Amino acid sequence: MLGLIALVLIVLWLLGFLAFHVSASLVHLLLVVGLVLLILHFVRGGTRTA
Q1: What pLDDT does residue 29 have?
Q2: Closest CA to 34 of 15, 3, 1, 44
Q3: Taking CA 36 as the corner, what is the angle to CA 42 and CA 5, rounded to the nearest 5 degrees?
Q4: Mean pLDDT for each consecutive 10-residue tract of the chain (50 residues)?
Q5: Could you state, in order of their start, the residue ranges of all structural domains in the chain?
Q6: What's the whole-model pTM score?
Q7: Which residues lie below 8 Å from residue 31, measured CB to CB, with a gap of 6+?
Q8: DSSP alpha helix (H) spans, 1-50
Q9: Distance in angstroms (rounded) separating the CA atoms of residues 25 and 39
Q10: 5 contacts 38 by C-beta, under 8 angstroms
Q11: So what's the pLDDT on residue 8?
Q12: What pLDDT does 47 receive?
């Protein structure tokens, strides 16, 4: 789930940056959030069952 959110944020950043040529601070903030979530996903080892 966390990886999916990160992927969506990265795709939205790419669409905003490349397709619409938007370089606002919010778009880059979304990229940073997406990358942090992706790193957290891999550090935690993906999904775990209890």
Answers
A1: 78
A2: 3
A3: 80
A4: 82 74 68 85 72
A5: 2-44
A6: 0.48
A7: 9, 10, 13
A8: 2-14, 25-44
A9: 21
A10: no
A11: 86
A12: 62
